[in-house]
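Database export, one record per block. Field names are fixed; values are copied verbatim from the stored entry.
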Amino acid sequence: KKTLCQRRDFLFIKRYNIFMQISNEINKKKLSIRIVLIIFIIFLLNTLAMKFHWYFTVWWFDMPMHLLGGFWIGLLLFSIFRVKNINSKNITKVILLFLVIAFGWELFEVSVDKIITKNIFNILDTSSDIFFGISGVLFSVLYFNKRIIKNHNIL
């Protein structure tokens, strides 16, 4: 026969587990909303940049765009991998997959420049794009660690 204290402890643990399951679902939703919001901001900025030719008139405009792109891809990869803690294995996995995506994107960009616009290959632009993308991913590591994990917003 269980004592009153054991029953109370059992009910507390059961309520805590249910609360954590609900909390985890809400936090997945918050992370998804943040990812979609960042994508929307990138879309909006890119649309304005194309309309007002900011990529050609503001020489540094693609740098924050690649930083934001790396940031949202980093958060998306953390979400896809269902990362529950930040360790070197998870960080390495996210950075390596980002590099595959970044090099694929840069290859696409160089191909379009060469075939359609007939621009010459610019190694400085490509390396700058990858650098700012990686910086965005590293920023997503810090953000994920501080905002998602430290606040008990575990995926």
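Remark 1: The CA atoms of residues 46 and 65 lie 8 Å apart.
Remark 2: The first helix runs from residue 4 to 52.
End of record.
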